[in-house]
Amino acid sequence: MVAKSLGDRVFNAINHTFLILVALVCVVPVLYVIAVSITPINEVMKNGGYVLIPQEISFAAYKELFTKDTIPRALMITLSLAIFGTFLNLVITALMAYPLSRKGLPGRGPLLLAVFFTMLFSGGLIPTYLIVKETGLLNTYGALIVPALVGTFQLLVMKSFFETIPEELFESARMDGAQELKILYSIVLPLSVPALITVGLFYMVGHWNEIFRAIMYITNSELYPLQVVIRSMLIQSADFNQAEVVVPTMTLQMAAVMIASIPVIVFYPFVQKHLTKGMLIGAIKG
Prior knowledge:
Blueprint: H1 6-37, H2 41-46, H3 60-67, H4 70-101, H5 108-120, H6 125-134, H7 142-145, H8 152-163, H9 167-175, H10 180-191, H11 193-208, H12 212-217, H13 226-234, H14 249-285
């Protein structure tokens, strides 16, 4: 075993120290939100508004949030948008990516150029709003799904993955009389599970964190998704002189943030390897 030089040990010490500081910057805010959401406000106030390890634990804030119908309704709306919207995203994206992945498609070059152009330049805020308004999508969930039905980056990632499938499989299927839709459904999609998971995760996280379109297109508070409801709670003034209130605003705010974050935190580790693989596909082939 080769002994490390003094320079290597100093470098490793600096590297480890830097990584620990970066980890603390990422972890401490999460711990703070969790701690405040389960700590009585008196203890938070006693520690100057900051607490990481609570001496006393209370889940009154979570109970209060689920007692009222605002958070459960917003949670169900967001969950429905994430599931149904992601399904539509994957269907339309796959239907576009498959023909664009075939080199024999007439006009493939100009079509790809048009797709790439939308990655650099959008239609603009006001024109998009006017289109949504004129199509009658205002104050409907369609306004949160239809304008973002196909993401350019996700489309290119899926197209790149489809291009890695051996051409012999397509030729064999065509010799057996299969049509293109049949080939897509029976051969391409079953072989593209990693790409579908990666692209689906991108879409699902986007729907889960949807706030800008909801603020733009939804004015009926009964239709607000979870992120808009939490935003409304967070912009309320956090009055620390609320110890006499059963569940103070600050504790409710942190509990609501945790309710919105937990599904993504729990779900992400299971698909992380597919996400990394999909991003590498897009980086190499796109």
